[in-house]
Amino acid sequence: MTFSRFFYSVSFYLLSPIILLRLLYRARRAPAYARRWAERFGFVAEATGNKTIWLHSVSVGETLAAVPLVKALQQRYPDHRLMVTCMTVTGSERIRAAFGDTVNHSYAPYDMPDSVARFLNRVQPSILIIMETELWPNTIAACCSRNIPVILANGRLSAKSAAAYSKISRLVRPMLWSMSAVVAQHADDGARFTQLGLPDKALTISGNIKFDLHLNSEVQAKAQSLAVQWRGDNQRPVLLAASTHPGEDELILQAFGQIKAALAVKPLLVLVPRHPERFNDVAQLCEQAGCRLARRSAEQSTAEADILLGDTMGELMAFYGACDLAFVGGSLVPVGGHNMIEPAAWGVPIISGPQLFNFAEASRLLIEGDAMVVCEDAQSLAQQSIGLLTNPQRRTQMGAAARHIAEANRGALERLLAVIDHQL
Fold this sequence. Notes:
Helix content: 40-55%
Structural class: alpha/beta
Distance between the termini: 27 Å
CATH topology of the largest domain: Rossmann fold
Largest sheet: 7 strands, parallel
Number of domains: 2
CATH class of the largest domain: Alpha Beta
CATH superfamily of the largest domain: 3-Deoxy-D-manno-octulosonic-acid transferase, N-terminal domain
Shape: globular
Number of helices: 17
Strand order of the largest sheet: 3-2-1-4-5-6-7
Number of strands: 14
C-alpha cells in the first residue's frame, strides 16, 4: 500500500463516525438511510456457485444508464449472476424496480480495506464494472491484487473533476494504472483520464450508452395515457420540469407565472424534484407561489391544477413522453445537468440551464442540432417556453431533430460489451 493510499484509508476510518451521523441525518427525511448499514461494511450474502459480474452504479442516473447494459449481460452471460450495487437509497429503489429479483443487490462497501475485503470474500466477483465516474482507490487496489478486472463503463470526466483529481495525483495515478479498461464517452473524457495517468492501451472511446435506451411498448402506452389525461378536453399544453434541485424550483415557479399569464389556454406544469426527500418542501413552494397543486402520489385530478408534483419514483421516462416541452434540471444550478437524452429519444424539444458539464458532449450535439435551447435565468426560461408552446411547427422541428440525434448516436453499448467480452 502506498503512503497516499494509507493516509487516505486512515482518514476514511477516522471520518466513518461522521459518515454514519450523516446517514442518520438523511434518515430524518428518508428513513431508508437508517437501514441496511451492515451492507455498507461488506456484510452481504455469500456467493452461490455461479460466476459473478459485479456492476456498481452510484445512484439513480447511473442505474438508469445501466439498464440496457444489465439486460445485455444477462443475455450474453446466462451462467453468471449479477451483483448490482449503489450508494444511495434512491439508487437502491431504482435497482429493485428495474431488475427485481433477476439480479442480486446490496449497497457497495465503504472504501475501507476491511469492508472491501469482506465484500469481495463473500461475493467473489469475476469482474467489476463501474458506471461513469465512481472510482475508489482501495476497491480498485483490492480487485487488482485478486486479479479481478476493473472496467470503468460510460466513463466521463469533466475539466473541473480532472483538475480536482490532479491535486491528489499520488493517489489517483496508481489507481488508474490498476484499471483494466476505461470505456469513455468522448475523446475529451479519454484525454483527461490519460493525462491523469491512465495507460493509452487501457482507453476505449465508445460514445454514451445512454443513447442506447429503448422505449418499450409499456412505457409508450403509459405516456400516451398520461398525455390524454393531462391535456384534457381543451388540449392544455404540458410543460415538464424534470430532476430539479434546490434553487431551481424557485426559478421555475417564477417562469411559470409568466408562462400562465401569456398563454390563452392554461398550461399544466409537471414538476419532478430530483430527490424524494424534497417532495414536501417543493409542494410548499408551489403553494406559496399561489398555484393549485395536485400530487401524483395521491392520484389527484389535474383538471383544475396548475402544477402536478411528480412525487413518485420510476415514472419520469413516461412523463417525458407525455409532455410538449421538457426542462431538464440540475442545469440552472452548478450540478452539471441531468440526462437530456431521455426526452430526445421521445422527440421532445428540450430546455436547459447553462450548467451542463456532466453531459458536455450530449448537450453539444443537441444544441448544435437545434434540438435544445439554453436559458440563463427565469426570464429567459419563460420567454423560450412561451415561444415554443405557442409555435407548434417550431416544437415539431426541434423534437424531430432531438429524435434524430438520439437515434444517430446509438452503438456505444456494443462497443462497451466488446471490451467486457475481452476481459471476461
